[in-house]
Write a structure and sequence with these properties.
By secondary structure, the chain is mainly β. It has one domain. 0% of the residues lie in helices and 53% in strands. The chain contains no helices and 9 strands. Strands 5, 6, 7, 8 and 9 form a 5-stranded antiparallel sheet that branches. A hairpin with a 2-residue loop joins strand 2 and strand 3. It is globular, with a radius of gyration of 12 Å.
Length: 85
């Protein structure tokens, strides 16, 4: 991932962002604040990520589709299988 900008994070919660990897935009998540590892949320490209209001789902666009990815932050950040919304 060459560049990644993260948004939407409060202290102690994860941050999401998109950046270029393998010549396409991907959605990534990382603990915030901190230097924890970046984890890939999207696997075939994605852009404009955002959190659900409860912070338990990451939404992103892939072309003309909306994808939803459930996440868990307790006790560690885990990403479950994505699905089209």
């Amino acid at each position: 991932m060459s560049q990644c900008s993260y948004t939407g994070a409060d202290a102690g919660s994860p941050a999401i962002g998109s950046g270029t990897a393998a010549d396409r935009q991907e959605v990534m998540i990382q603990s915030f604040p901190g230097d924890g590892p970046r984890k890939e949320v999207s696997t075939a490209g994605g852009e404009t990520p955002s959190f659900s209001s409860d912070g338990k789902t990451v939404f992103y666009r892939l072309r003309d589709q909306l994808w939803a990815v459930p996440i868990n932050t307790d006790p560690v950040l885990t990403i479950r299988n994505s699905r089209k919304s």
